[in-house]
Amino acid sequence: MLEFCSDMNTPVREPVDGSDRLDITFITKPQVLVEAVELICLAMHHESYDDLKHRILLTYGAKYDAEQEQLFSARLDFLEQLQERAETLLDFQNPRLRYFFERHATSGSSYCCLATVLITSFHDVKEDDLDRAVRAMKFRKRLLIGQGFEISDISYSGLSFCRCSEGQPPALHEQINRLDCSPEFKWKIMTGLCAYDSHLEELLALMKPVCDMLSQELEKLEPLLEPVYAYWRASLERHTLKELLQHIGPGQGEAQVDCEKLTVRFWRTACNRMYLGENWTVPGEVVAYIGIIVELDDAADGSQVSDQVICSMLRVIGDNSKFAILKLLRAERMYGQEIGERLGLHHGTVSRHLSALYHSGLVSMEKGNGRVCYYTINRKGMRRLLEVMAKLFLEETPSLPVETQPAEEETRGQTGAQALGEAH
After folding, report:
1. Helix residue spans in 181-290 (DSSP H)
2. Exposed end of the chain (fewer CB within 10 Å): N or C?
3. Can you give the pLDDT of all 424 residues of the chain as single tens digits?
């Protein structure tokens, strides 16, 4: 849900000048190319910010007061509108667009696409202007796919690099063959890097309508982001870089880096991600990309789930018709008319039920041809709800150990559990 990644291939050594302070630069202007890659990828694969909003509120909602929740929702609603705009600007059946944005599994549960490899891997954190950004990417590609560096890993943020430990780097095909991804994706990466300039120009032409739209629209999001900038300025004054790494993932390797400068960028469309890596073109500089909904105190154990969100989801499940729809969708993907015919429900009723289930994060929606929408059960959302319920009601608490509970209460609990068991 919230994704963290560190490309620090070497442990961080803090400044040793008697001060723990880093030279920190915050850049709040969006980088349109990077934002466009993520937005197009999410749109192509039918992942909505509305779904994300409800999953986040289920997991972390208890930490928000009413005003904070309203502000959080406004940011995600704005991104949802951008995604809907992007869907009208591109032909997602275009085979070349699909070639660049098709997702491929990488290490762990991560996914990456060729567009991310070609753009995000080589994007310069300092560049905002589109033309200068493209020139900087071509320069960084020549630098990193050359002497002194080699590819070390691949993740949702693209390729990671490290300095060659000795002599010449391995041949490019050997570096790519070591990556944890499919042979098909390795071949796409190889061909994309060998003909980088021509692939990049084709990709930029395909992305242009969305880039133009984002150039005009993203600035409208800025008033909602001022609290985000203030939060991270305060947080990075209180935390050292080593402490920040503990939230993202420890560095690896034996050499040490003299970290003198930290440059912070904010991701809009990749709003739930955080990335930390070295800026290979500036010695001693570390780059942090931070999603606009990420906070350091986010706990994924269910302790921040609001009672309001839980009760809302339980009310949805408690309706007989909605419960019947969930049972249908656990086995197959279906569209509204098909569900209505199967359950004997009017089309308008089915639409209302599906809307409630969707906005509760219990079903997922995938747009098909024309105006047809297909629905499936959202297993992640359902699993998350069950985990939270188990944590709330089944885990022992210090104030009421199991052995001190009244026998009558224990008996009633066992009887209820038996009844549920028999119902199945």
Report:
1. 183-194, 196-217, 222-238, 241-248
2. C
3. 444 444 443 333 344 344 455 688 999 999 999 999 999 999 998 888 988 888 788 777 767 888 988 999 999 999 999 999 999 999 999 999 999 999 998 865 578 999 999 999 999 988 888 899 999 999 999 999 987 889 988 988 899 888 887 778 889 999 999 998 899 999 999 999 999 999 999 999 999 999 999 999 999 999 999 999 999 998 888 777 666 665 554 333 323 345 678 899 999 999 988 888 888 778 778 888 999 998 876 544 455 566 767 787 888 888 899 999 999 998 888 988 899 999 998 888 888 888 888 877 788 877 666 667 888 888 877 887 888 788 788 876 555 444 444 443 333 333 333 333 333 3
Any residues with CB less than 8 A from the CB of 114 and at least 6 apart, and which? Answer: 99, 100, 101, 102, 185, 188, 189, 192, 199
Instruction: Mark residue 409 as left, alpha or beta (left: phi above 0; alpha: psi -120 to 50; beta: remaining).
Output: alpha
Strands 3-6 and 104-105: unpaired
Q: Which residue has the tokens 């007989």?
A: 320
Q: Name which of 294, 414, 314 is nearest 356 in CA terms.
A: 314
The CA R_g of the chain, rounded to the nearest whole Å, is: 24
Q: Hey, which residues does 149 pair with through a beta bridge? A: 163
Sign of CA dihedral 161, 165, 168, 169: negative
CA 177 to chain CA centroid, Å, is 26
Among candidates 85, 86, 95, 99, which has minimal Cα distance to 40?
A: 86
Sign of CA dihedral 258, 264, 270, 272: positive
Q: Is 357 exposed, middle or buried (0-12, 13-18, 19+ CB in 10 A)?
A: buried
Task: Tokens 């939060």: give the residue.
Answer: 231
Beta bridge partners of 153: 160
CB contact at 8 A, 110 and 41: no
Burial bucket for residue 206 (CB in 10 Å: 0-12, 13-18, 19+): buried
